[in-house]
Amino acid sequence: MAREKQEEPAAEAAPEFSYREQLEHLNPIAQPLASRKLTRKLYKCIRKAAKHKQIRRGVKEVQKFINKGEKGITVLAGDTLPIDVYCHIPIMCEDRNLPYAYVPSKSDLGAAAGSKRPTCVILLKPHEEYQEAYDECLGEVESLPLPL
């Protein structure tokens, strides 16, 4: 009996979409988009950063710390609507030479940050505990072609 009750919530959970299915819900401004492999690396790095409290999440907080001059990788969700909520963030990043990339899902981005709530933007700060993973992500994000 107890086993059946434990399995029920898993069945009711929201269905997870594959990378390809998530691409169908992208905004027109979601460029540069991280590849499937880079997306996984970014989520992994965000999980590590969340353990060490080295992330800034949400438009208001990220915008505040970008203006203050904090360095890091900005990760934006490509399925956020309306786009007016966060369309100014990439421009701020370009002005300050901060690398940024879009990932397909805001719910996956929030989950990687250790939250049940979807998140549309995260600023990932460098830290010595996960420096190797951070540097790898930084190199790949900087090599992505910027939109015109």
What does the oligomeric state look like here? Answer: single chain
Please report which band the strand proportion falls in: under 5%, 5-15%, 15-25%, 25-35%, 35-45% or over 45%. 5-15%
**Spatial shape:** globular
CA-atom Rg in angstroms? 16 Å
The helix tally amounts to 7
Find the count of extended strands (DSSP E, 2+ residues): 4
Helix content: 40-55%
- Unreliable stretches (pLDDT < 50, length at least 5) are 5-14
The structural class is alpha+beta
Description:
Mean pLDDT is 86; it is low at 5-14. The radius of gyration is 16 Å and the shape is globular. The protein has helices spanning 2-12, 19-23, 36-51, 59-67, 89-95, 106-112, 131-143; strands at residues 55-57, 73-77, 100-103, 121-124. The chain has 148 residues and is an alpha+beta fold.
